[in-house]
Queue: 3 jobs
Job 1
Amino acid sequence: MKEKSLHILLVEDDKYFRLGIKDILHKYGVILEADNVKDAKHLLKTQKIDLALIDIHLGEDPLGIEVLEYASRQEVPSIVLSSCDNDEITELAYDAGCEHFLVKRHFRKHLEPYIQNIIKNIQGSLLEDFFKRNFITQDSETIKQIRSLCEINLTGKTIFISGETGVGKSLIGRLLHSLNFDESAPFVHLNCSEIPENLLEAELFGAKKGSFTGCDKDRIGRLSQADGGILFLDEIATMSKNMQQKLLKAIDEKTFYPIGSPTVVKSNFTLISATCEDLFEKVSNNSFRKDLFFRINGINLDIRPLRERRNDIKLLVKHFLKTSPRKIVVKKEALESLMAYDWPGNIRELLKVVEVLTSSSKGVIKRVDLPANILSKNVDSEIEHSDSEENPLLTNAQKKFISKNGLKSYMRELEKVAVAMALKENNGKIAKSIKDLRISSSAFYRVMESLN
């Protein structure tokens, strides 16, 4: 993160503790100080304050609550630093408007990431820009999940991102890096499926010169490179079980040995794992270690495929056309065909198709100008639609149910029936049921809860 010219109010009656805080925060801007409620309110009223750090107990009483309430009315974000271990006081602080309640004894280790996160929110529309420029979507559920993830301080935690190939998992990883780390902190990306098995260990952990054939110099592993930042392991499901075991140990201990080295290496990295495969199924068939799965499966995000958010297709086409140096016109019937296609390669596949269209000799794209695989899929859809008109999907009983209870109620009941049937057909195997239903694990468990 670049240095900021912020005005930070520090409300604390212990002058020595104030010195410790100022030692951390001086690089972010101007520090204004107050050791009582009156002075704190005066500064909040007369000065431009971007962030307030407030001690709950100013003297013997929890007078910091009053300052919190005043700061909230002034729309100034605040963080509480306190030695108090009282749940009632903590609840009062959150009710008064504080963003985070941190204990003093760990402030040197934990305060700065929270400060950085709030600064990001104060100083810009990083997420808004992300959804406009990088991850184009108007899908409310997807936006909600990403926003919720971005509100968490992820430093030192493990994050797991699932989703089909081409949905933008690495884009999410870079967003999380920009929200949680200084710009100088490393973001190390490794696609495990692209590295041969016999070289993956050296790639991850490093190696000493001469430790194996072809190793003609010392190699620094990706875990070492990620020290103080993020290690993004894409397609982690492709790892062998032997490599999984070694990775698990490194994640737990944050230490490891490069190949051929007797010296232990420490690396304090935050791990983001990603895969397009069904890890539930791989765990159930014993091709992925259960202990590693539970270790990386801490904070989860499942990105829905493009076929489940078809309205985004039109947005993405317009976005890709806008960024192209050559302008073309895509006719309505062609756009409708693009929206009807399932896009197994998701956003990456759509981008390639638009690039082909803008590179063609035609300036006006009609339906017949689309790639053959998209046209053939549309023909199949038209045949299915024709069949459905002769054999309606809804029976008279179902139509009556919808008329009486509403479509949403019918859809909820339909989900329950579908999940129950899938579980019965698969003898209770969850991973196989999720695969057959072609839904995310989070959607499956949501329906399961309603069944229970």
Note: The longest strand covers residues 6-11.
Job 2
Amino acid sequence: MKLIFIILFTFFSLFPLLTDAQGHRIQIKINGLKNSNVLLGYYLGDKKYILDSAKTNQEGIFDFKGEKVLEQGLYILILQNKTFLDFPVTEDQDFAMLTDSAFLVMSLKIKGSKENAAFSDFQKNMTYSQKLSAGLRQRLMNNKSNSDSSRILNDKLQAIKKDLDKFNAKIIRENPNTFTAKFIKATQEIEVPEPPRDAKGNITDSLFQYLYYKNHYFDNIDFTDERLMRSPFLQSKIDIFFNKVAIQIPDSILKEIDALIARAGKNQKMQRFLTAGLLNFYERNKYMGMENVIVGIADAYYFSGKASWADTTFLRKLKDRVEKMRPNLMGKEGPDLQRLETNTGEWASLSMMKTDAIILVFWEPNCNHCQKVMPKLHQLYTKYKEKGLSVFAFYTQHDTVEWKKFIEQHDLTDWINVYDRHNLTNFRNLYDVFTTPTIYILDKKRTIIARKIDVEAIDKFLMHYFEEFKK
């Protein structure tokens, strides 16, 4: 113990902390790490970014320093062997750390930052608890058939969790309003109460626990504190909510988005993080109907002027994208396509289709994917036409020779085949057609009930649709 104290004293005495210092200086010694490259990074959303680099000397000593004050949040020290150490950077940006390359977390000592010391205690206790729990879970797996052993092991796991919660609560209590306290609290799941029961013990509200969990999901996160943006869990927490917890209906999702952004209060950095993040999230989302969410976010925050950070170039591009989505959103009446010529030389329009379900497909015979999709689509048409399905197949080009040849070769003559000889319909913008095939499904009133649906999903969709239609 005396030797350890001397080593710590010697290292820390080499680096006196500055008073009234501007910028940042993080001094580090890692025992066992000689002449090695080290990276300093930070978290933002679901990504890590490299901020600086350094090289250790023979004693494993190095530092990161600069005149700029760092944005507060969780940072990451990445060693050459890909091991890493998380630590907070908050108001105290002149501090020192001493650790060992073999035990980065458990050997960590801090000078000059009370908050880093508290975060280190949290990490050490978490690491120790996880190690104990992992051993107990393995023993539990090996003793599944022994009920007594399983009960004892489960009790021990619960005791570890209870001790961990108690330890974390102590850190939060002793470090109020710090990043560390808010970080720990934000990683904790909310406690869901038991559902209400009647006098006989029967549950009277089967949705109670789900709705409580959904409505209180974010209660432990302080969205007015922008430091939490720079942590590894926040984006994941948001993604899980909108993927698995929120009701997957556009109107419901938009209400949840409004409620979440409102939690940021007047913090514009957090507002931007949430708004831009959710817009990108739904741009990547492949579920049908989520274009309604993109348009809803754009209207409520970007086009209304609330997103003051958005420049004119971005707004122009977003508006162009949204205006191509707006006419063909799920639940809207599909725009009519008139005065189209058929493969037999007659005239047709989309509004003439009066069946219970209409597949509107935009395609071309020289598209490799179309060549595979169109025969599959015809099989589905044959299967469901007696139940009320029709197909309006819109050829997007003008070379009628190849078009008519494909129709004849694949026996596609029993549905409506059309093309826009004089480019009068503006179909590309009305139905957002910039790749082929593009497939919509409309109901009898021409309401869009499926948008840009894959051919593989149509069979199941139509089966459910016609089952519901009969009711």
Note: The radius of gyration is 31 Å.
Job 3
Amino acid sequence: MLWKKGFRFFVCSFLVGVCVAGAGMVGTYMNMNEWMTDSHKPVGPWPKVQVAEHDPHKPTVAVVLGSQVTEVMDFMESYELFARTQAFNVYAVAPDHGVKTLSGGLHILPHYTYEELDTLLGGSPAMIVVPAIPFMDETKYRPTRQWLQRHAGRDTTLISICTGAENLADAGLLKGRSAATFWADIDRLEREYADTHWIRNQRYVVSGNIVTSAGITSGIDAVLYVIGRHIGEDQALLAAREMNYPTYHFVRDPAMIPWSVGWKDAVFMLNFAYQWKQRQIGALLYDGIEETALASVFDTFDASGTANTLTVSGSGRPVRSRHGLTLVARYQTGNAPPLNQMIIAGTEAHVLAAEAASGWEDHPKQPKPLYLHSGSPARYVMEAPIEQLALLEDKTTAAFAAKRLEYRADSLRLKGKPFPVEPAAMLLAVTACSVILAVYVDRRWLAPVR
């Protein structure tokens, strides 16, 4: 009868859907967990963090680290830009002194706890930068919310990067204000925080003492705007030129054509769901490494769902970045697991990383290092990893990486396969196996039903 055929079709289709979706959910959970986890923290004890002497004549900038995970580029680009000017005291601050995780698995030790900075300043910092900090554990996140609320007075400029705007909204600091945020989350935030006017067509939005930015690299525009407001646009322009930042015009006029979710963005979920054999990439840490150059590796490869980046250093001691961050590697050159590629980030890596690189090259079974930025010192550091992602994976994945990063320069040169072959093949294989299973179930249990 017709209803029996319809029932059999429904059961078989449901079974195929459950198998395909279930396999994708497992893959997504595993890959997302590698990207946004704090479970691989290196274990100390660590020496006391070196902090530059505080200059009471300079404004103080506090860049916030969450207890668990903080978005890597949001944090690093802001820290480096303020530090480059040498006009501010710039500190990484956190609820406690423990190792903190940046997305993708970069580990850092804060300069001060919230309480220590409050004691040092005897009040609020001039500026607080709020990167995107996921709400993973309410108990662990609560001190950050309370600290932001405590220092939200009009004498402090609050700067949110990407979905750091959600952290401000969660603290009740955006009620009745206009704000920008990440294009992929703005619909959700409009529903959850309807008392905020969410702006889609600006790279950053100024609302009183709060400056909110759109997607990740939009934070550069917001920070440069704040720098220009405090110490002059000539200094902001100088910092942008030193970093070879190609779209300074957005600092002067943040208007943009808004991006929204499109069908090509499905490559993001395809990679996370069905890229079951992620590429293992090493990131060599060395003293003097540029913060944004290092972050570009993690926020391109790990955030694409195609790779897992592991930090490696030449010794077990912490590494000090160019502008005074204390970084902790997960592995040393002698005990690193087998890697598919070793990346050395930074425009001066050939010189500054020479000792660490020589130690790595003593292990012939490991891949030779790729000096990611040394061949293009006059380009902005985000471009080389996006182009390398296209070569290693495909152009569609790399194009989405640029979109996710809100990178709007037209200087990218993407070469590679047109689309992600491996996860697409895995999806087809899972679908085929699910269909075979459904046919077996139909013939074994459903077809004989009378």
Note: The mean pLDDT is 94.
